[in-house]
Write a structure and sequence with these properties.
Helix content of chain A: 55-70%
Distance between the termini of chain A: 14 Å
Strand content of chain B: under 5%
Strand order of the largest sheet of chain A: 1-2
Distance between the termini of chain B: 75 Å
Radius of gyration of chain A: 18 Å
Strand order of the largest sheet of chain B: 1-4
Number of strands of chain A: 2
Radius of gyration of chain B: 35 Å
Shape of chain B: elongated
Shape of chain A: elongated
Oligomer: heterodimer
Helix content of chain B: over 70%
Largest interface: A-B, 49 and 42 residues
Structural class of chain A: mainly alpha
Chain lengths: ~140, ~750
């Protein structure tokens, strides 16, 4: 897979796909999207890169081992779930903070729910890449 | 002489002392309830255990359970005392003590439980702990094999018993024994209940044809044998039958099943007992005889017969425990248990001889021992039956006469006559090993001389088993009657049998043993069957696995659908538009290409087409989240499989084959899925959940995308579990792929 066109196109596409994946992750709470889909799209970006430039290059671009990403995502999701215990709620209860909220404006919503979704995103991204890289390097 | 082991610890050290004190304390506690129970009270304590399932740890202390509890704890104390010097220096002595106490606890729970489910739990505790005890010498293949045999036989029976318990629960609405009012004989479930309970009782109490495991259980150390045989384990089945007599007894099938199996067991076992040369084996088979007799008389079921059975239960426990412990002393002191070798030990082991003689006289049923009373009452109960039931008397007579001879073999011949050479110069055992046999043998004489004391236990036990007030009167001798004459005849026949038994033994030894080799063949057949099944199913070919998996799915689902499917209605197809039809055609085309293509790559791509078609359906019906996920997963899957397949060889020759079975399976699976989907569409959808999420999504979770809100908020714990699965699956696949990589040259 050393097609020049693919390699040139990939440089642009990967960046777009990653941005798109984060966009999907963040809008997920109100529109179609979310951590699972975002993670898949992000993984697609890196897989495209791996096909064009080889696995080694993709791993270098990723900088962190995909297994580590998946495990970190699991940890993030767990911590965000357990955060609900602090004010005395059941585990996996969402906590919300509306930054700069006024009477009319909701402000910037921050929540453990978003953190949980980021955890899902990381798990999906890491898990898919773990699989794909291992498979590509194997065959 | 103090009982010290090789480490110089008295009574087996702390573990041994605890193991002696615990049953002793229990015995004292039970003993203080004798007056109340003898006065006719039934003591009940209750403790909820699993209230939602109706399981309580009730203690039911009536005559029956008190008799058993006293035997278990009393003989248990003597056995642990005995074991402290028999096994005191053993490296696994502490472990042994734990097993024995677990066994004791299980047995006590079994006889005291008022709740059938709790009773079953304790029943299985005794099964498992006896497995551990029989296989205590685990480095011997024989011990392991015999332990497993006991476990399998009694465990299988235990499962039947459990099924019986559940049926009783269905029939009576409660699992409490005290809640069963009256007889179940007229209940439509009576026959299955009866068969299942009796299966459990017969395996546990080693009735023919399940008898073979019990003599094999002799692989256990002698204290265990004494305990298993005298007081407890094997009498669990007898206890169960006695306990269930008020609710299950009194029917024809109860009478015939119990008397026939019990009678056959009693006579068969006494004949085989005569055949043995190992005196421990002789005793093992006489235990079978006692169990058979007890079952037979519980089956007879008249108050007289129950009274006789309860008296015989005590008789047997005393002499059997004493004799087993005595054999351990002989084995210890002379180094062998071979009846053809042992002679004239009396001078070297006088106390052992005394205990053996006392116990054997009771076993032989001679006056004035308790055994005489037991036998007399058995005869009286048997003679009290109709003339047509003469064979019950016959069985009791034959077994008693053979027991007389067996008593001579075990306890007379080894001690009298010219002293023979033994592997070890014969010497007396320590006091801790003699205390048990002497005490138990003396009890046989004591109860014989003052039967009133035995009556305190026998009378309430009889009342408990018959379920009705009973007139119980134990006495040594009143008048010369038919039973007494039969006793005299028994002694005569017994003497003759004893006289000719060496010849009898040689004759019987030529009859081959059937059951045990049969068991081994059965086990071999099970193993071979498993191997064959594994070889058929686990072929190592993915195609076969997939086929078997889907075929199972089809059969299981079809069987379920066959029973509970409502009448199907074809869905209304009038509203279908062009876009629906085109998606349908799209998917069908993909599927057809998968089935007919000759190229793997094409097949993978066509499968992707099917998946994308499904994603289109999601879009059409308003589930964009699911559609996006489906699309992405589909694309990724195609990429992954394509990457893998690039390296695989072409498969032209294989593809060309037509596989009718695969076709059939595919059609069946498709048809079944269609049927189920139609049924699902037919079922009215409950919109409550949807409405709740629609209403609660924004105010509670501040999100308008219900799917995502459910995923990360309402059902976040589920999602967490799912991503954990994803991560672990990825790691697993990673390890698998890396693990198969060959080292690079």
């Amino acid at each position: 897979m050393t097609s020049l066109i693919v390699r040139a196109a990939t440089r642009v596409l990967v960046g777009l796909l990653l941005m798109f994946s984060i966009f999907m992750l963040l809008r997920g709470h109100n529109e179609p999207g979310g951590g699972f889909i975002g993670g898949l799209i992000g993984a697609t970006g890196f897989i495209l890169y791996a096909i064009a430039h080889g696995c080694r290059a993709a791993r270098e671009a990723l900088r962190i081992d995909p297994q580590t990403i998946a495990m970190a995502g699991l940890g993030v999701a767990l911590i965000s779930g357990l955060a609900g215990i602090i004010p005395g709620d059941a585990p996996f209860t969402g906590l919300w903070l509306f930054l700069g909220a006024t009477e009319d404006e909701k402000g910037l919503p921050l929540s453990t729910i978003l953190v949980f979704d980021i955890g899902v995103y990381l798990v999906v991204l890491g898990a898919v890449l773990t699989l794909v890289f291992a498979l590509e390097e194997e065959v | 002489m103090a009982a010290t082991d090789t480490n110089g610890r008295t009574l087996g050290g702390p573990a041994g002392i605890i193991s002696i004190l615990v049953p002793l304390a229990l015995f004292a506690w039970f003993a203080q309830h004798i007056p109340a129970v003898a006065a006719g009270q039934v003591l009940v304590w209750r403790l909820d255990w699993v209230p939602s399932l109706g399981v309580g740890l009730g203690i039911l202390l009536d005559g029956l359970s008190l008799s058993f509890a006293l035997l278990i704890s009393g003989i248990g104390a003597l056995v642990t005392l005995y074991a402290s010097s028999y096994l005191g220096g053993h490296p696994h002595y502490t472990r042994f003590v734990c097993y024995l106490l677990a066994f004791m606890g299980g047995m006590l729970g079994l006889v005291l439980s008022d709740n059938l489910l709790a009773l079953f739990v304790f029943w299985e505790v005794t099964t498992i702990s006896s497995y551990l005890l029989i296989g205590f010498d685990a480095d011997q293949a024989k011990a392991r094999r015999n332990a497993l045999q006991a476990l399998l036989v009694t465990g299988t029976g235990g499962l039947a018993f459990l099924a019986g318990i559940l049926l009783i629960g269905t029939a009576t609405g409660s699992f409490d024994i005290s809640a069963i009012e009256g007889s179940l004989a007229d209940h439509p479930l009576y026959l299955p209940i009866f068969l299942l309970v009796v299966a459990g009782a017969f395996t546990k109490s080693a009735q023919v044809p399940f008898h073979f495991w019990l003599p094999n259980a002799m692989a256990a150390p002698t204290p265990v044998s004494a305990y298993l045989h005298s007081a407890t384990m094997v009498k669990g089945g007898v206890y169960l039958l006695a306990r269930m007599n008020p609710s299950l007894g009194g029917t024809d099938i109860w009478f015939w099943t119990l008397t026939i199996f019990g009678g056959v067991t009693a006579v068969f076992a006494s004949v085989v007992a005569i055949r043995q040369t190992d005196i421990k084996q002789v005793l093992a088979y006489t235990t079978l005889m006692a169990l058979g007799t007890l079952v037979m008389f519980i089956g007879v079921g008249t108050p007289y017969a129950i009274e006789a059975a309860m008296a015989f239960l005590l008789v047997h426990s005393f002499y059997k425990a004493a004799l087993f412990l005595m054999i351990g002393v002989v084995d210890h002191g002379a180094g062998t248990r071979d009846a053809t070798v042992l002679r004239g030990l009396g001078r070297a082991m006088p106390i052992t001889m005394l205990a053996a003689m006392l116990a054997a006289l009771s076993m032989a049923g001679l006056p004035p021992f308790f055994g005489f009373i037991g036998k007399e009452f058995l005869y009286k109960a048997a003679l009290n039956l109709d003339a047509g039931m003469l064979w019950v008397t016959g069985c009791a007579f034959a077994a008693s006469a053979l027991m007389f001879a067996a008593a001579g073999i075990v306890a007379w011949r080894p001690f009298v006559g010219q002293k023979a050479d033994t592997p070890i110069a014969a010497h007396e055992g320590p006091w801790s090993m003699l205390a048990g046999p002497v005490l138990l043998a003396a009890l046989g004489l004591f109860f014989g001389l003052s039967p009133d004391h035995a009556e305190a236990l026998v009378a309430p036990a009889t009342v408990a088993v018959t379920g009705a007030p009973a007139q119980v009167d134990l006495y040594l001798f009143k008048e010369v009657n038919a039973a007494f004459l039969l006793s005299l005849a028994t002694f005569g026949a017994g003497l003759v049998l004893y006289w000719i038994h060496p010849r009898l033994r040689d004759g019987l030894a030529r009859v081959p043993a059937r059951f045990d080799p049969g068991w081994d063949r059965l086990m071999d057949a099970v193993a071979a069957g498993s191997h064959g099944l594994t070889a058929t199913i686990q072929t190592g070919r993915l195609r076969r696995y997939v086929f078997v998996t889907f075929a199972t799915l089809v059969l299981a689902t079809a069987a379920a659908a066959w029973r509970g499917l409502p009448a199907l209605e074809m869905p209304n197809l009038d509203n279908l538009r062009v876009k629906h039809w085109s998606v349908l055609i799209f998917i069908m085309t993909g599927a057809l290409v998968v089935a007919f293509t000759n190229s793997r790559m094409t097949a993978v791509a066509a499968l992707g087409v099917v998946g994308i078609g499904v994603a289109l359906i999601f879009i059409i019906f308003g589930a964009p989240d699911v559609a996006i996920t489906q699309l992405l997963v589909e694309v990724l899957q195609v990429v992954l499989v394509a990457v893998a397949m690039l390296k695989l060889p072409h498969l032209n020759w294989e593809r060309a084959r037509f596989r009718p079975w695969d076709l059939l399976l595919a059609i069946a699976l498709g048809a079944l899925t269609t049927v189920i989907l139609l049924a699902v569409l037919d079922a009215p959808l409950n919109p409550r959940l949807t409405e709740y999420f629609e209403a609660a999504s924004v105010p509670l979770a501040y999100g308008r995308n219900i799917v995502n809100v459910i995923l990360v908020d309402f059902r976040a714990l589920d999602t967490f579990g799912e991503i954990a699965v994803v991560a672990v699956a990825a790691l697993g696949a990673f390890a698998l792929l890396r693990g198969t990589r060959r080292p690079s040259p």
